[in-house]
Amino acid sequence: MQKLKNEGFEPIDTFVKPNTNNPWTFKEKMLLGLTPQEYMKQLVRNPFNWILAVIYAVGLPILVGRFIFGLGWATHSSYDYPWGLFLGWGLFVMVPLSASGFMLGTTVELFGRKDFKPIERLGLLNGLLGYFFAVVFLQVDLGQPWRLVYPMFVSLGPAAVLFLVAWHVATYLSVQVAELVPAASELMGWVKPKKFVRSIVLGLTVAGIILSTLHQGALGALFTYAPGKVHPLWYSSAFQWFHFFCSSIFGGLSMLIVVSTLSKWFLSWRCDDNFLKNLDRITLGLGKGCSMALITYFVIKIVALAHDNEWAYLLSGWGQLYIFELAVGTLVPLALFTTAIRSNRAGLARLAAFFAVFGIALNRLDTALITYNWKLYQEIPHWREFIIAVVLYATYIVVYRAVLCRLPILYTWQGESK
Amino acid sequence: MKKIDRRNFIKGSLAGGLTAAATGKAKNASAAGGTFGGYPDSMGVLVDLTKCIGCRTCEAACNKEQGLPEPDRPFDDYSVFDEHRHGGLPRRTTEGAYTVVNKYEVEGREHPLFRKFQCNHCNEPACLTSCFVNAYTKTPEGAVIYNPKVCVGCRTCMIACPFYVPAYSYSSPINPVVKKCIMCYDTRLQFGRPPACVEACPQGVMTFGKRKDLIDLAHETIENKPDKYVDHVYGEKEVGGTSWMYISDVPFEEIGFDTHLGPDPILNYVKDFLAIVPMVLCIWPALFTGFHLLATRKNANKDDSNKA
Q: Which CATH number is correct for B38-265, 3.40.630.30, 3.40.50.300, 3.90.660.10, 3.30.70.20?
């Protein structure tokens, strides 16, 4: 696409075609303003699409196989290890990395920090897609996915933590869809939906904070059902929910930095000057938020050790993993973020964000898979489980890219709809 | 009036006090407080591990009563005692076997010790409290039963069970469900009859009766032969108490029992979080709307007439 732009191609960002009064048709909008031939050509030219093609060629049959032959065929889920990579990665890692939606909504709409406006929609989209694909992962993992609505309408178990997760993720998904209605409205030329969402945006934002606090925390609280199965260093009856909630704050913001960096590198044709020129400043601003969440998280992790008197475990092999996770996933990004802010270096903050995302992923996998059943034995996910997870994550990337190319997320729509 | 237990209480409070009924329940139950100690006339089984000879008759009886598939090796094949699953661990309950007997070689003991194992039917079951579709029920008779028709297959119950009891039929793509001992509730317990395994045992290892009587019996047995028995009734206090209880002449930690579970029901570990839920729901709206007003106060201050 960058090549096309260098040749004079201008991506759609307004209702009417340049130098005419004719509006873009829906089809033209979906094809980014290219002819079908040109569109196909740029698809084929992109080497990343070839990688995707290989992933789908190998992975799709295996994904189908999971529904034909059952979970026993596709995964190493067992009586001892009921949860594997689908939940370990797809739910427990993806949801905290999607906390950016409520964080940016809060920053811009609630605290009135309009200087973060250029990245607000990317934050919201990162949230929406992350949650949506967490549900997709969940659907692949559930024994009977067609019963997904049972906890809502058929048989209610409101005293269970997962009941709260189910309800909150479902409501929060709708909140996030509503929050992104303005972006879709601009592209499609709708007026009323955008106006309506603007009128309730504060309510949506506050709802987002409540739902996020509780379900991010609830994902941690799910593990409080398993004292003695999760290793004590990763287990805290009193603080588990706060560990998960607090780390989701820097997780979501760091993921947003990572995604905005990738957009700058690979989708710069779609970013407008408002986005590109403000990005370094915004990255450092997000970094400030991250560093505050990181130090809070670090302290409360240590408090949890003291609360349950678990210092002795630090000397064990598990302790080394714990120290590694906390050092590389928390202290390194904390140091990098603070240095970046002090010396005003956005590049360093991007490196810090990478470490923070790695730290979150490692923490969730440690809790859900690696240290789970530490008294029994270690389980390694089935190779089919890896491939299905890669297929689903690739789909996440494909959808993400497709939306970024079209909706006014990275660029500002020119002119108000009439 | 319907019996009140803590589960109903929590259900009631979490439902947000939407109905008058829920409020009524909450009032009654809060007086009780603490932990649900189990239904007063709940039945149970006391297992005297010293008597078991490892004949696997109970396994066969369970298989027949529950209509389970024929096992790979017949029930009179004792080589299964040397089987090991992943991680070098002894056999466990599976989707095809709701109860298993394992052999433990104990140093200084004349014969190996055999341990029968199945769902312990907790007073306050972790599987039940973790289930978001309410598929589990603790019946007043003491059994923890399961409704496969509403199960979504999230398998949180298997995460929550401290005894690693529930199994799941992973092999079924269409209708995978949780498989576990239900204390023969459907066919026997609800009619006051003991579970099939108890009745089939030729050695009288298991005693069926009211749980509170069994606790007395267990302590009496231990007191009569203090040299023989370990002074511990496993299941009397573990995770809030279980309907199935065990006495043994070998310390429990040496024969595959987890002795670090503590007396609290699993739900107690989750309550720290459950308590913050209503607080967040109530406090956050006003708190964050207030933050919004504070954050946008600059406009108000600009107006001179507002200055003190």
A: 3.30.70.20
